[in-house]
Specification:
- The protein is an alpha/beta fold.
- It has a single domain, classed as Spore Coat Polysaccharide Biosynthesis Protein SpsA, Chain A, CATH 3.90.550.10.
- It is built from 10 helices and 12 strands.
- It has helices at about 40-50, 65-75, 85-95, 115-120, 120-125, 145-155, 215-220, 235-240, 260-275, 280-290, and strands at about 5-10, 30-35, 35, 55, 130, 135-140, 160-165, 175-180, 185-195, 205-210, 245-250, 255-260.
- The strands form 3 sheets. An 8-stranded mixed beta sheet has the order 4-1-5-10-7-11-9-8. A two-stranded antiparallel ribbon has the order 2-3. A two-stranded antiparallel ribbon has the order 6-12.
- The termini are far apart.
- Bound molecules: 1-O-phosphono-alpha-D-glucopyranose.
């Protein structure tokens, strides 16, 4: 029986360059889709999967220093004492426990997703944990992380959400080298970050939901910069594979939207609005008008 997944890491310190100028004054995770910020969808997805402790890794933005994200949490009554000592802060966040625990955001430099996850190592400790990238928004009957957690109960080890992408887009994703595939679960023998389509081992790509083993921190501690001159989570995963625990991909049920991209975000707004009975008729009328 695999160990229960209690903690989730939300890297929210990216620069959001594909969404400038909107992201000049706020983190991309604060962009609303219909009427909720992306980060709220991710947090609710994690809650639905049974996560109890929520770890936010914010970036030190030149013009914002993560303030708008913290004030969002504070407005929801989750975050307090951002300027106190670390122990104090942790205690206070732990106190906000009736809907789960909300440890302090961890400031970091934007050195890449791998570095962001590594910044959460002390709060995660020695247990498997989830990572959610809020700009990957997933519309699904069963929330995507819940699908992963349920599958993980039988696979154990590490498990990542995957989907097929057009071959020419492999250079946007972490891509799997496949050892076995039953149509839903994929046994993985390697992963490559953003491979050129000419050399990509497959077109099965990682979407921003991960269940990882704490050993990943040992690898993150020493890997150098990879694709895009960033410290890549995928490079640490590549080292994790072949260790003493299994590594799988899960083709999840649901539709994923890349909300770090303007068109993807617009598409998400339409899809999520159409999924809401209170809005669908009006949105359909508007779409008819424009099309
Ligand atoms: C990140 C990961 C990549 C993954 C992708 C999913 O890339 O590095 O492996 O496939 O998220 O959205 P990014 O979108 O930050 O470039």
């Amino acid at each position: 029986m695999a160990q229960r997944i209690r903690k989730a890491v939300f890297p929210v310190g990216g620069l959001g360059t594909r969404f400038l100028p909107a992201t000049k004054s706020m983190p991309k995770e604060m962009l609303p889709v219909v009427d909720k910020p992306l980060i709220q969808y991710a947090v609710e997805e994690a809650q639905a999967a049974g996560i109890e402790e929520f770890i936010f890794v914010t970036g030190a933005r030149q013009d914002d220093d993560g303030r708008s994200f913290r004030s969002f949490l504070r407005a929801r009554g989750h975050a307090r004492g951002a300027r106190q000592g670390r122990a104090d802060r942790r205690r206070q966040f732990l106190d906000a426990a009736n809907r789960g625990r909300w440890p302090t955001p961890v400031s970091r430099k934007p050195l890449g997703l791998g570095h962001a996850v590594w910044c959460a190592r002390n709060l995660v400790g020695d247990e498997p944990f989830a990572v959610l990238l809020a700009d990957d928004l997933i519309l699904a009957e069963t929330p995507c992380l819940k699908q992963l957690v349920e599958a993980h109960a039988s696979t154990g080890g590490s498990l990542v959400a995957v989907m097929e992408v057009p071959h020419e887009h492999t250079n946007r994703y972490g891509v799997l080298d496949i050892a076995g595939d039953d149509g839903r679960l994929v046994a993985v023998k390697g992963v490559v970050e953003k491979p050129d389509p000419k050399v990509a081992p497959s077109n099965l790509s990682i979407i921003g939901r991960y269940i990882l083993q704490p050993e990943v921190f040992d690898h993150l501690a020493h890997i150098g910069r990879g694709a895009g001159n960033e410290i890549q989570l995928t490079d640490a995963l590549a080292e994790l594979i072949g260790g003493n625990k299994p590594f799988h991909g899960l083709r999840f049920d649901g539709r994923r939207f890349d909300c770090g991209d303007k068109v993807g975000w617009l598409q998400a707004n339409i899809a999520f609005a159409l999924a809401r009975p209170d809005m669908a008729p009006a949105v359909r009328r508007i779409l008819d008008e424009y099309c």
